[in-house]
Amino acid sequence: MRSSKVLVAILLLAFFFRFFQLTSVPPSLHGDEIGVGYNAWTLLTSGAGEYGEKFPLTFRADISPLIFYLTVPAIAFFGPTEFAIRSLSTLTGVLTVFVAYVFCLKLCRLYGLLNSRICLLFTLLMAISPWHIQVSRIGHDASLALLIQMIAMIIFLHFLEKQKPGLLLLSAFLFGLSVYAYHTPSFTTPVLLLLLLVTFRKILNRFRPILLLAFFIFIAVITPIALHRISKPLGDTRFGGINIFIREQPDENLLVTIPRRFAVSFINQLNPVSWFWDTSSSRYFNVKNNGFLYVLDFGLISLGIWNLKSKLRLFLLGWIIIGLSAGALTTGPVNAGRILFILPPLLLFASIGFFSVLQIMLKKNLNLLVVLVSVYILGLSNFLIQYFNVSPQLFYKKWEYGAKEAAKFSLSHESQVQKIVITDQIKQGYIYVLYYGQKSPAWIQSVFNKKHPYIGYSAFGNYEFRTINWERDRYLKQTLFIGTPDEIPSAFFINSISAPDGTVLYGIVQTD
């Protein structure tokens, strides 16, 4: 009974951290989030994606489809709003905290090594995790993928406990479904299944016919999206644009360069600055003086790995290696979304490490529990201050602050001018016009339009999304310009869009 009350309190805490000021922190919705909302709206109203394809298997720049379809009910209920876009990921985040508790209990029963107190601590660490809080507060599909993968593992572990074949088949279906949630499970899910197969081979050997059927179910589920992606040129797929091998030279020795690139990229995934100190440069995170994890987590994770003397340690380490490998296959700095898969085993090790410290203190008659708790409270307080108060003032440009205002202003004036030119300094500026203007894919196809080489459109109707050359463009008649102060001299502004700190982001000019 006491555990239930503690669990409810943790879930309420998780709910608060994920829903508080949801539409204003982060300070604006970036283009990918608006893209989710727009495509969910077009699915609701016409059954098509933004390019006019009916019920597509991938959206936009080869993005996995599940988040778009699952956002449709939120758009239907709340309307085309910012809250509707972020609510799915936020609700998913809260559910993941609860699922983390159930997952830990399943491991308790299977290995007989853990206890309910460790599971409650594991759940609490998930609830207050800076990493998980941030990814749960934006329209990001990584949160959804993690939830589905964890539910699939719970059902798999339940099968090992109850040995009911139907559970294995359901687990296979959900593992297959995870591939539709985010691009990373296309790698992590199949390799995780191999890890589960090796780890629990003694039990699974007794169910070979059912195991074979589960394999076919998994293949059947992933086949449609796999064939869809295989049918595209590699350069048009998500992986084709972000993998570490895209810059291969014809004369390279691939047997040498591929392992070397992977090794270097894998090491880069372990950058301690991003993990424990500062995520200012991390896409969609941008919090100073805070890493993905708390500084104390490093010591507790290390202690947990050291003290967990069982096969469970090998399984959890294998899980972590799989997740890091997924990140290592892609370009750029550490991407918290691509490696979110490893958060549960890391926090499970941290929970075990925490209780290991308590055992050491009991043996040596040390009362340092207050110290440990205080360090976590200080870390959480610092994160909350930086995330809710400081970061919106520092990193508003990272979140395309002003794009919504630019779109709404242009929409209110589109019938008054012949042409509207919006700077391409607003990334994916077109999608804001489509979403806030509720312009359908049919409308796009009915007017002049020009596809952007990477994503979306560079022009449609009387809109253009491009760099503004004022020396040339100033002579265009009956044109509304929305551009940066570097593109348009402020002396010509008839209006402007400013940042939270008062900085002018975009100037507005209308020619006669």
From TrEMBL:
Subcellular location as annotated: Cell membrane
Any single Gene Ontology cellular-component annotation: plasma membrane
Protein's UniProt keywords contain Nucleotide-binding: no
Sorted UniProt keywords: Cell membrane, Glycosyltransferase, Membrane, Transferase, Transmembrane, Transmembrane helix
Membrane topology recorded in Swiss-Prot or TrEMBL: Multi-pass membrane protein
GO biological process, one term: lipopolysaccharide biosynthetic process
Any one Pfam family match given in the protein's UniProt record, by short name: PMT_2
Residue ranges of domain Glycosyltransferase RgtA/B/C/D-like in the record: 64-222
TM segment ranges: 83-103, 109-131, 143-160, 180-198, 210-230, 291-308, 315-333, 339-361, 368-388
Primary residence: membrane
GO molecular function: pentosyltransferase activity
Name of the protein in question: Glycosyltransferase RgtA/B/C/D-like domain-containing protein
Species: Candidatus Gottesmanbacteria bacterium GW2011_GWA1_43_11
